[in-house]
């Protein structure tokens, strides 16, 4: 799927979701991936620079396979912690096979936290589990 096709698909999904919201069909039982897509079209594309959007797109490429299938109201701090811990393992960096840097891990956590803050504003969840997550200082082997 090309970038343009992907963008059209995200917009189509966002429109469908908005229609569901208008008819009162949306609850917290929404998959995290759907909330990411909503956040991207309704918030990020309107408020972030193109370079930031590119970085967030790359981060979403890691977050969606790990957490996207979960309902947003069921994601726990432990789920997010396990995901971040996986980024600290050898092989997480696709270019050099090393763990991701702490700065990059913080960006991933910040991205996930932004999605939860957006969901809180929409009354989809009541709390942000990212506030309980830490980025451990791991020894590099």
Can you tell me about this structure?
The radius of gyration is 16 Å and the shape is globular. The longest helix is centred in the N-terminal third of the chain and has 20 residues. Helix content is 60%, strand content 0%. 22% of the residues are buried. It has a single domain, classed as DNA polymerase, domain 1 (Orthogonal Bundle), CATH 1.10.150. The chain has 141 residues and is an all-alpha fold. It has 5 helices and no strands. The model has no long low-confidence stretch (mean pLDDT 87). One of its GO terms (molecular function) is DNA binding.
By CATH reckoning, the class would read: Mainly Alpha
Number of strands: 0
The CATH topology name reads: DNA polymerase, domain 1
Whole-number mean pLDDT: 87
What percentage of the residues does DSSP assign to strands (E)? Answer: under 5%
Roughly how much helix do the residues carry, as a percent range?
55-70%
CATH structural architecture = Orthogonal Bundle
Provide the number of structural domains: 1
SS-based class: mainly alpha
Poorly predicted runs are none
Full CATH superfamily name:
Tyrosine recombinase, N-terminal domain
Q: What is the radius of gyration computed over CA atoms, rounded to a whole number of angstroms?
A: 16 Å
* Spatial gap, N to C terminus: 38 Å
Envelope shape: globular
Number of helices: 5
The largest sheet, given as strand count, sense and whether it forms a barrel, is: none
**Topology as H/E string?**
HHHHH
């Amino acid at each position: 799927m090309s970038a343009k096709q992907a963008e059209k698909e995200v917009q189509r999904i966002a429109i469908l979701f908005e229609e569901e919201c208008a008819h009162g069909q949306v609850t917290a039982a929404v998959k995290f991936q759907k909330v990411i897509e909503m956040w991207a079209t309704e918030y990020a594309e309107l408020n972030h620079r193109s370079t930031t959007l590119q970085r967030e797109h790359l981060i979403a490429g890691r977050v969606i396979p790990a957490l996207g299938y979960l309902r947003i109201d069921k994601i726990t701090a432990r789920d997010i912690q396990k995901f971040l811990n996986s980024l600290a393992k050898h092989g997480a960096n696709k270019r050099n096979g090393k763990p991701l840097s702490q700065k990059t891990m913080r960006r991933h956590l910040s991205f996930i936290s932004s999605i939860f803050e957006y969901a809180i504003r929409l009354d989809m969840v009541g709390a942000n589990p990212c506030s309980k997550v830490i980025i451990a200082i791991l020894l590099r082997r």
